[in-house]
Amino acid sequence: MTEIRIDLRPAAQSAPAAHAMEPASRGHVIEPAEPAAISIDRLSLWYGHKRALTGVSLDIPVNRVTALIGPSGCGKSTLLRSINRMNDLIPGVRIEGTVAYHGINIYGKDIDPVEVRRRIGMVFQKPNPFPKSIYDNVAFGARVNGYRGNLDDLVESSLRRAALWDEVKNDLKKSGLALSGGQQQRLCIARALANDPDVILMDEPCSALDPIATLKIEDLMREIVKDYTIIIVTHNMQQAARVSDYTAFMLTDETTTGQLIEYGRTQELFTNPGDRRTEDYISGRFG
Ligand SMILES: Nc1ncnc2c1ncn2[C@@H]1O[C@H](COP(=O)(O)OP(=O)(O)O)[C@@H](O)[C@H]1O
Ligand SMILES: [Mg+2]
Fold first, then answer.
1. What is the C-alpha separation between 55 and 97, in angstroms, rounded?
2. Residue 46 CA, ligand 1 centroid: distance in Å
3. What is the H or E stretch that residue 38 is in?
């Protein structure tokens, strides 16, 4: 649904200095035979002196759900945040390697990180509606950006896409904070969709929700993925298996921090993992 313009507006910020890249390590990492929305190439990241990612390379296909799984602390959230430059907001972060969005390095010079984050939206673990009405939550980004279209239509279509419209259409003035947890998370999804992104990053979006609210979000993801590319971090392997088309398994071990161990079609990775560590993790032997 989204038209891809390939110019991301220039920013005043300077680009990070170039560094020598990690060698590509492929192992059990497939290259999907589908167009990539996001291509990550030999990405490494440090928080100050502490390394969090080591030479991660993977291509994330358009209009698919890709799940990032792995034990706590293995770098899933760090990798996710590096896909829309959210890590830029953390002092002392340094990266090497590239993240390309439809072929454009989002860390290149002349790239505006605000525009990157508009196209590559994010939904967080804990639903975080603004202390504003349901309507104003969804309209927020459009107002900030001086949206010229019909705001009522935008709010309605975004709430419909987020499968929340029928539940709130008579209460649009009610506070977003008055909704249930699951509704709040769908409101946050509506707020993200109203900015017209084409990639949506979700960091454990269901971990604060009950099973019914979780299934609603999963159904919603399967529905909207026709129009968006979704990348979800989850510690719930059943969820990864239910909702995703591709799965990436990450691990930190004694020698290497935040590495990609295996990446493939979800069905294949869960039924016939190529790496023993993937097998051990998905069969519940650790993590
Ligand atoms: N803002 C931060 N500052 C310093 N270290 C961080 C920060 N965020 C995460 N880390 C560290 O980076 C590593 C990876 O964390 P994270 O990406 O949150 O893992 P996951 O999402 O897989 O649990 C961990 O060792 C964590 O402590
Ligand atoms: Mg995390």
1. 8
2. 10
3. strand 36-47
Pocket test for ligand 1, best of 44, 68, 78 (most atoms within 8 A of CB): 78
**pLDDT tens, residue by residue, 18-63:** 444 544 446 799 999 999 999 999 999 999 999 999 999 999 999 9
Token pair recorded at residue 146? 């001086």
Quickly name the fold that domain 28-282 has.
Rossmann fold (3.40.50)
Q: Is 202 helix (H, G, I), strand (E, B) or coil?
A: strand
Non-local (6+) Cβ contacts of 238 within 8 A are none
Say how far apart CA 90 and CA 50 lie, in whole Å: 13
Residues forming a β-bridge with 95: 45
DSSP 107: T
Ligand 1 atom having least distance to the Cα of 203? 21
Which pTM does this prediction carry? 0.91
How many residues in the chain? Answer: 287
Nearest ligand by distance to the CA of 79? 1
- Say if residues 27 and 276 touch (Cβ distance below 8 Å): no
Give the 3-state secondary structure of residue 133: strand
- Indicate the domain borders of the chain: 28-282
